Amino acid sequence: LEVYNASFVDETPGSPAHLGRTVPAKLMQAEGWPWWFWGSDYPAEQTEHLGLTIFHTSNGSFHFRSPAELREHLQPIIVNQLEEAGAKIHSAATKMGGACWNATLVKSAWRRFDSDSTAGFLQQQSLIGEARQFLRNCVHGKNAQEPEAVSFLYNLLSFQGCNSAGPDSQYRVRGGTQAIPLTIAAQLGSRVVLGDPVQSVKATPEGVTLRTRGGQQHHAAAAILTGAPAMVLGINFEPPLPGTTAQLLQRMPMGTSMKLAAVYKQGPWWRDLGLQGDILATSLPRGLSLPEPDAS
What we know:
single chain; 296 residues; 4-stranded mixed sheet
């Protein structure tokens, strides 16, 4: 379970979210969240304004605000096993040669790690139930997919930074990431065509021709396809897609996460309780529920 609030932090001095012991931003940044933490990654400048996060485990629930408080409430054996698993992942990552998604630099270790799923790696570790669930949740948070469906190679590349450290992990977009395509669409106006899927794509030295199911035809110097793999496979390509590309699209699993949004008329009521509005769980408590949202 992962519940995140969409209102981020309350930076108003003396706000309810500041009730209790606060953690200076410099200390929060110096500590750093452990690699196995799958909670929300707030910008550094907001860390000292965070409220308390609720964490449910098989041994009960607790609140935390900083990495040190998180570790303090967990059983030492869980933290130790997670750190040991992290050391094994780091050891495996060093055999990758430091390359990121470069087929010309592939080493024999790549094939070995790609032959195993992330779940296969987890099963090889001597982890107690809670520690194993931590790592499963970590994979869920990174991949939006079950560990059984993601290769260990992919996550090794991710853990060594091949999928991060870019602008996408440094900035938040006001209005949500959907604000980007909505703004572009507003500028393009009537040139944005909805409800008329692409049926075929023909590429020639002179450019690209797209035909839609509605009979429209569009010409361009190039085309960018951003649909889900299953949707892209439903398009007729001329010339056909390279075999390796077609096989990748056939085998690339879609995420299994389910998302819902609850909007409350009274606003972020959790702040009155000094809470951040985030909930994490490795074991769900009985009777867990959220206040009924405003149906209007």
